[in-house]
Each structure stands twice: as structure tokens, then as C-alpha cells.
User: Fold this.
Amino acid sequence: MPDVRLASTQGRWVLLTTVLGSSMALLDSTVVNVALPHIGRDLGTGLAALQWTVNAYMVTLAGLILLGGALGDRFGRRRIFVLGVVWFAAASLLCGLAPTAEVLIAARALQGAGGALLTPGSLALIQATFHPDDRGRAVGLWSGFGGVGAAVGPFLGGFLVDGPGWRWVFLLNVPLALLCAPIALRHVPESSDERAHARFDVLGAVLGAVALALITFALIEARSASWAVGIAAVAGVAAAVAFVMVERRRPDPMVPPDVFASRQFTAVNVVTLCVYAAFGGFFFLTALQLQVVVGWSALAAGTALLPTTVLMLLLSARSGELGERIGPRLQLTVGPLLCALGMLLMLRVGPGASYPADVLPALVVMGMGMVTLVAPLTATVLASVDTARAGLASGVNNATARAAGLVAVAALPLLTGMGQDAYRTPHLFDAAFGSAMPICAGVLVVGSLIAFTTVRRPAPGCRRPECRTHGSVAVPPLEGERGRPASEPGPAGG
Assistant:
């Protein structure tokens, strides 16, 4: 039985460790988009390399995150958490020192693998360490601090890019790791799951990551219409089919197919695909639009995006409470529509755009849409499966959101005819952005229709989320199992 009390010195050290660890991954997910124009100019590369700078990280993180949680259960949550922190920092150092775009992309893939070890550990350590009477408050403090970190991220990223340079967006992780790892080793007790004796589904994890990588490559490089693109597309689909077959036949699969026997769980994951594909494309392109077309600095662009995160941080808990009273269907229908309206309002953002008149209204509407849908989305995922599989269901949903975002980043430039040099030519990028926003809005409308026709009110007494405050705009929060040490990945911050 975990027995560390939150008010104790050790309890405060444990909370600090988990906040520092989750902050590394959160900062990376919120600041890199702001740095993209500077990375492209400094390394003399085209748009495809900027897409890979985002997606190389997401491919390995999405493909390996469930495996990372299982490794922590078997070999010790603190051990794998510290390994993830060190790995993430080493890859971040390589990113910061990268002399070419190719080295940066490879380092980003390594960084994602480190994130897959680091990300599941934060909440798992809290659940495995704190006394049950203090666990809820500890989770609340952790998610609140994580939300603050998410809010600070774009501002800090812009400050670093305009000041010492884009490389410090990555190098910042090194001092955080030098602080986090020793504290974890000294003050966080080790824990593991004595029941975790099944074989690891390494083949499933590799096939999932390979499928994502090949499909992403085919979408990003499709403009060349080469044989390599066709081969990658066919191989990516084949890898995806192989992944499904392996998961169906393995005795201990990473993603048990029977979890999709729940019609509600399947439907909510389809809604997640739609919603987070639109979000991924939006935040990737908007950070570029504000700098390339509007002409703002990285600091101004990063700060401009704060309203969505701040609204999430302030109102997500209340949205979750509303969903418990009225059921998730209305919120999962209205939320995507509000986000779609916000994206259409972004069509007013062009050369000479005014922040209070053009940018802020769109981001406030979109932020309110995100507030409306994210908490009920997580609650519905947890409520649609048995309580014992809540961690698995949350992990699958989180990985689904990451995969949707990386596919959107790969596909939107292709769908809008965005060339390799578009981010250097304001009028070309503005035209492509004007085509992308209606596409993203349309995907959100599809998600809203699916939610309206398929989502039903959960049964009374079903599992509710522990993380009530959510500040990340990139992915839905992860949840572990309540009442015992988490055996599935925990949240990536709030």
C-alpha cells in the first residue's frame, strides 16, 4: 500500500519530480511549432523537413507510448521514468546541436522514443507513491502545475527563438533533466506491478510505428510522385494490416482488439481522430501563418496562442462536471462545431491582421470549443470500458489523437497545394492556409455528426477521470487505474 503523504517532505519532492518530468514533454509539444520558420531558414530546408521535424517525434511517441507504460510496470516505474528523462534530454541535446535538417529529424525521432518512456511515468508515480487519502489532491496539484506549464510554453518558446535562438527550445530540456533525474533517484520510491509478467508486444509496437512512419512519408513526399512514394504507401498499409493481425493473434497484445467491442469506445475514438486531426493541422499551420504572413515575431506568435490553453486550464474541470450532469452527447456535438467556427474565423487572419479584432476572437471561440469537448471526451472513453481497462482505454485514445495529428500535419500541405518554399512566400502560404482552415473545420463537423449519432449517456457509477484540469491542446489526458498503482500510461500533463 503506498503511504507517502502529500504534506511530507518526500511527498513534495515526488510532486516536484513528476511536474518537472511532464513539463519536459509538455514544453516540447507546445514550443516547437513556434520555432519552425527559424529552423527552416537557419538550416536552409523546405517545408517537408519542417513537417518531419514535428512528425518524427510524434511517430515514435505514438507508436511506443503503450509499450513504455508496460515497461514501467515490469521493470520499475521510477527506473523507466528516469531512463526516459535521461534519454529525452540526450536526444534534446542532439536536436539543439543538429548541423543539418536530417540530423534534427533523426534526433526528434529519438526524442519521441524517450518521451514514450517518460510520458507514462508521471501520473503512474503519483498513483504508486501517495497514500490513497492524498492521491486525489496530488493528482489535482500535478495536473494544475502541468496546465500552467502548457500555458507558459508558447510564450517561453517565442522568447527563446527570438532571443538566444531556436536551438534553446531543445537545449532547455537538459537543465530540467539534470534537476529531475537526481531528485527522482533520491526521493521517489521504486514501484512495479507484481502481476505484470506477460511478454511485451514489441512486434506490435514496431509495426504500429513503422506503419505511421511509412504513411507519413508517403503523404509528405507525395508531391514528387516517385516510385518511393508508392512503395511507401503500399508498405505502410501492409504494416497497418499486419499490426491488426498481430494484435488479434497475440495472447497479450498491446492493443487488445476486444476493447473495440464497445460501440461507444469505437465511436469516441473516431471522434478523437476527427477532432485531433483538425487540432494538429491548425496549430502547425497557425504558428507559421502568424509569422510568415502576418509578420509577427516568434514571441508574438507564441503569446497569441495562449487563450486556448488558458481557457482549458481555467474551465476544463467545470466542463467535466457539466458533462457528468447532462451526459457527454451535447458537449461532444457542440464542442467540435465551436472549434470549426473558430477555425473559419481564422480566415480573417492575413497580412496586417489585428490581434484584438481578428486573431483573439477566433482563438477564444476555438478555446471554448476545446473546453466544451475535451473533458467529456476523456470521461466517455473511461466510461465505455470495464474499470480494470480504464488505463488501456485512455492510452489507446491518447495514441489515437497523436496519430491523427501527425497524419494531419503530413496531409494538409499536400491537400492545399503547399509547395516546399511556401513558408518563405507570404502570399502562397496565405492562400494555402485559406484552403486548410475549411478542411479542418469540415473534419470537425464530421466528428460532431458522429458524436451526435453514436454517443450515449454512460451507465451510472462508471469510472470518472482523475485529471480534472487539462492544459494541453495537443492530446487528451491519459489516465491510470484508480485505487492501485497505475498499470497503464499516465497523462502527458494535466
Notes: The chain has 17 helices and no strands. The domain at 8-189 is CATH 1.20.1250.20 (Growth Hormone; Chain: A;).
